[in-house]
Design a protein that fits this description.
heterodimer, A: 520 residues, alpha/beta, Aspartate Aminotransferase, domain 2, seven-stranded mixed β-sheet, three-stranded antiparallel β-sheet, 17 helices, 36% helix, B: Aspartate Aminotransferase, domain 1, 13% strand
Chain lengths: 520, 478
């Protein structure tokens, strides 16, 4: 790859004196897999046909395929190099700090991967008789047990496949609960700082979202919640509250808020995206929360996989237990069984039992850490965020004066005013320093937000390097704003044209011979 | 704790910079009444003890799928929506590169081109399997970056059809996987006024051949004139039978509805014409069996492809091609104005993530198989299943439950109760198939379901494995 001369500058300007951390190394241009290989090449190794061959056309007639699907024609060597080279174009936790706020990109233990691949877990088919699945059912039962201990909820369903799937599941249970009471309230209160999945999940239950403004201190105020309730008397299904909020703040008035929502006949849903801030400190089930999803891929270290799979178990208070998805795992004496006979259940959210492979990893992590280790993780996650805040807040003002928990949200307002450099530029320049950028421009209520979540697995040295990089970028912005605005310089590709991608979408590879109609 | 790097000295230095007296003081703004005061009751385990504990748990189940058929402790013919195939060694070896599995959603494309290009290739492969062939006049399908699994993908397809048509009704036809039908029901319940679900969601029975009864379909469509958003058909269906999609598509389109096709066995696309070429509007399915070991059914990968003109109504992430500042080809997340982080309550779906790593495994496996290998593997599955059919239907009192053509799975009616036969065979180390009376795996409307086994046969089974199944069934059948 060609490198911009400016790519050398992080080293020169890095105040750590450790030399370049950046992303320069040998990278190959890599065409699409469909552009490689040659007709007739294959990476397949198939057993011989030891039974009489069958002609598909004789079986299926017109339903048989005339033309094979346009798969690549490459050897195993081609495939291995292709996907190895592509992997090198990714930033990843195993490469460096990945402080993507709200995503909890903590280290993913290697032992989890080993355990998930044990034949006694990976080799199980979901339709096996239960007598052959006892270990898997026991693991699910035990995972529910430890999640209950951590959260204080009455029961936990492991079925939802991701956080947003858990939200959907929780809201379905809330709707079913109200219907069982002969009520059909329509309104769900959602703070303006919430993740977009919250209102989208509410809509999938035909709930109408009522946005509640956060106060100037960044907190959700009980008065604002009470005022919103008063505007919709008798029509409050519940509230969805992220705690700590997306501003990284503990919702200090959650007790009064919970009380107000319950008094109005509503239920309290807590978005558990930020649960890494609360392990061993606060148990949502103990403080009046009716329902919360866990993100096993955030708090409990199952790998994010380049965008999934995740897993989103949901904990519930006693009054929502009858509505849990089927099946639940139950213990009878020494054996485990599935309970399908739950007449008030919302039913099934997906096929089979959920993302079992993720459950194995999360259980492994929880048992390695133990209760004390999990509390320590929370303490160090908060210490890391608060430390970073202290290191950078003079240059990057914090969104709220209230104490930060596991993440800190800062803004570009000073930098932008003084140098014209914005959050996006800072994010891109961080890549030249060898870091993944934080979450940017979220939450929406903070203009130019940089949402930084270091997690507990980063050391003080790494945090210092990251803080130094941010401070150095601010200096660069003052001295040579163009250098920052044109970043990144050291990555395989420079900034990409997202407008062009959306204006004339090309969502699949097409051969050069494709007709204009196909190319859209 | 090996994952937490802080020494006491680090903590002291950090607290000094913060100006806080103690770590506990960082939590002092949490009202005392809300604080949990006792330690969490979970003992910690070192790696040696941990592996021993998890190894014990693993040993309490009997794996049915291993790297070799012998490594699985049972000889398994289980399918029912998850037909495990041999996953070449290279797939998991490449998946274990932590640049893949410890990355997240490619929000920052300059440092995520690996994931972006791989998923773009995945989108292309799935479009090739399910869409009309390129080279014709028909615009090709497009595919999203994947959904959670096949069943939730179908629920999302039904919601998409409602958006596209502005209608509310859905017809689930013939032998649809029961988990898929239940998931659709669960999703739709949230969108219906209480008591109206049954009016919006109806089922159409299958015929004696196991296929959709077209007369029934016509009747259902005409009864619900202009209210049906989509008709859902699985092929090969839950009983393994290949549906005659073209005739169904004509009837569905004549009623102004969309045809949503479910495919839980993407390998069948090696020998079957694509649903897109037979008139499907949306195709969804499950790719786990071609991607990773079965893992009790999850994580999987929800395949989701549709006509290109529906792209703005699609759920889920999409990756598109573009260029960087220097004109070099690259990839980005695109058309995100459909999605929840922009559109919030008006989004096409609440889905945020995809199943990136499993989509990658699917892509690597199909790349290894390649154009010819994919077809050969499909033919091998067909041949093995036809051989098994001929062996098993030659047994006294055993016959096919339905007569339609099948790919690599079929329903066998036994001369005795299927669950008892299956249990006797299990004691001999054979998981002969899924008894269609097993909880959550049953199919309503199938006569003699209690005598029926659903049997999947693949490249993993040698001729002698099939022979062993046949003689064992004969021996234990009452």
């Amino acid at each position: 790859m060609t490198q911009s001369p400016a790519s050398a500058s992080p080293a020169a300007s890095s105040p750590t004196g450790r030399g370049p951390i950046g992303t320069r190394h040998l990278l190959h241009q890599q065409p699409a897999i469909f552009e490689q290989g040659t007709a007739g090449r294959s990476g397949a190794s198939l057993p011989p046909c030891d039974v009489p061959a069958v002609d598909p056309a004789a079986c299926f007639g017109e339903l048989s395929r005339a033309q094979p699907a346009g798969l690549p024609e490459v050897s195993e060597v081609d495939v291995t190099r292709h996907f190895t080279r592509l992997s090198r174009w990714n930033y990843a936790i195993d490469i460096g700090m990945y402080p993507l706020g709200s995503c909890t990109m903590k280290y993913n233990p290697k032992v989890n991967e080993r355990v998930a691949r044990m034949p006694g877990f990976a080799g199980l088919h979901p339709a096996q008789p239960l007598s052959t699945l006892q270990g898997a059912l026991e693991l699910m039962y035990r995972l529910e047990e430890v999640l209950r201990e951590i959260s204080g909820f009455a029961r936990v369903t492991l079925q939802p496949a991701a956080g947003a799937h858990g939200e959907l599941c929780g809201l379905m249970m809330m709707r079913a609960y109200h219907q069982s009471q002969g009520r059909h309230p329509k309104k769900v209160l959602i703070p303006d700082s919430a993740h977009g999945t919250n209102p989208a999940s509410a809509s999938l239950n035909q709930f109408e979202t009522v946005a509640v403004k956060t106060g100037s201190d960044g907190l959700l105020h009980a008065d604002a919640v009470r005022a919103a309730i008063a505007q919709h008397p008798g029509d409050i299904a519940g509230i969805m509250i992220t705690n700590p909020s997306t501003l990284g703040l503990f919702e200090e008035q959650i007790a009064e808020i919970t009380q107000a929502v319950h008094a109005a006949g509503g239920l309290v849903y807590m978005d558990g995206a930020n649960f890494n801030a609360l392990l061993g400190k606060v148990r949502p089930g103990d403080i009046g929360v009716d329902c919360m999803h866990f993100n096993l891929h955030k708090t409990f270290t199952t790998p994010h996989g380049g965008g999934g799979p995740g897993a989103g178990p949901v904990g519930v208070s006693a009054r929502l237990v009858p509505f849990l998805p089927t099946p639940t795992v139950e213990k009878d004496g020494d054996s485990y069984r599935l309970d399908w006979h739950r007449p008030q259940s919302i039913g099934r959210m997906r096929s089979f039992f959920g993302n079992f492979g993720m459950m194995v990893r999360a259980y492994t992590y929880i048992r390695e850490m133990g209760g004390a280790g999990l509390s320590q993780a929370t303490e160090m996650a908060v210490l890391n965020a608060v430390y970073l805040r202290a290191r950078i807040q003079d240059v990057y003002p914090v969104c709220s004066e209230r104490p930060s928990m596991h993440e800190v949200v800062v803004t570009d307002k000073r930098l932008k005013k003084e140098t014209g450099v914005q959050t996006l530029d800072v994010a891109k320049r961080l890549m030249d320093y060898g870091f993944h950028p934080p979450t940017v421009y979220f939450p929406l209520v903070v203009p130019g937000a940089l949402m930084i979540e270091p997690t507990e697995t980063e050391s003080k040295e790494t945090l210092d390097e990251f803080a130094d990089a941010l401070l150095s970028i601010a200096q660069e912005a003052a001295q040579n704003a163009e250098l920052v605005k044109s970043a990144p310089h050291g990555t395989a590709l420079r900034r990409l044209d997202e407008t062009r991608a959306a204006r004339s979408p090309r969502l699949r590879w097409l051969p050069a011979s494709a007709t204009p109609a196909q190319k859209g | 704790m090996r994952y937490i790097p802080h020494t006491d000295a680090d903590i002291d230095r950090m607290l000094r910079v913060i100006g806080a007296p103690s770590v506990d003081s960082l939590f002092s703004h949490i009202p005392a009444a809300l604080r949990h005061t006792r330690p969490l009751d979970i003992p910690a385990l070192d790696e040696v003890t941990l592996l021993s504990h998890l190894g014990d748990l693993g040993a309490r189940s009997i794996p049915s799928v291993g790297a070799t058929i012998r490594e699985g402790a049972a000889l398994s013919f289980l399918g029912a929506g998850l037909t495990p195939h041999h996953i070449p060694t290279a797939v998991d070896m490449l998946l274990c590169r932590s640049e893949w599995y410890t990355a997240y959603t490619p929000y920052q494309p300059e440092v995520a081109q690996g994931t972006l290009q791989a998923v773009f290739e995945y989108q292309t492969l799935v479009s090739e399997l399910f869409g009309p062939p390129t080279g014709g006049d028909v615009a090709p399908f497009i595919c999203n970056a994947s959904m959670y699994d096949g069943a939730s993908a179908l629920a999302e397809a039904v919601l998409m059809a409602r958006r596209v048509t502005g209608r509310e009704g859905s017809l689930l036809c013939g032998a649809l996987h029961p988990h898929y039908a239940e998931t659709v029901r669960c999703y739709l319940a949230g969108l219906c006024e209480p008591g109206t679900l049954d009016a919006q969601l109806a089922t159409v029975a299958m015929g004696a051949d196991g296929r959709v009864e077209t007369a029934e379909l016509e009747r259902a469509l005409s009864e619900r004139r202009s209210t049906v958003a989509c008709v859902v058909v699985q092929t090969p269906n839950y009983l393994g039978v290949v549906e005659e999609l073209r005739g169904i598509a004509q009837r569905v389109h004549a009623a102004g509805a969309l045809l949503v096709v479910v495919c839980t066995e993407p390998l069948s696309m090696g020998v079957l014409a694509s649903p897109g070429s037979l008139g499907a509007d949306i195709v969804c399915g499950e790719g786990i069996g071609m991607a990773i070991p079965p893992s009790l059914g999850g994580p999987g990968v929800g395949l989701f492809a549709a006509r290109a003109d529906f792209v703005r109504q699609m759920p889920g992430r999409l990756i598109g091609e573009t260029v960087d500042q220097e004109g070099r080809r690259g990839y980005v997340l695109t058309l995100s104005t459909r999605e929840q982080h922009i559109r919030r309550e008006k989004a096409t779906s609440n889905i945020c993530t995809n199943q990136g790593l499993i989509a990658l495994a699917f892509t690597i496996h199909l790349s290894l198989l390649g154009r010819r290998g994919f077809v050969e593997l499909a033919r091998l599955n067909l041949a093995k299943a036809e051989y098994a059919k001929s062996r098993l239907t030659a047994l006294r009192g055993c016959q096919l439950a339905v007569s339609g053509p099948t790919f690599n799975e079929f329903a066998l009616r036994l001369r005795g109760p299927a669950d008892e036969v299956a249990e006797r065979l299990r004691k001999r180390g054979i998981l002969a198939g899924v008894p269609l009376c097993q909880p959550s795996f049953g199919l309503s409307g199938l006569p003699d379901a209690d005598k029926t086994l659903l049997i999947a046969v693949t490249e993993r089974h040698r001729r002698e494995d099939i022979d062993r199944l046949a003689s064992a069934i004969d021996e234990v059948c009452p």
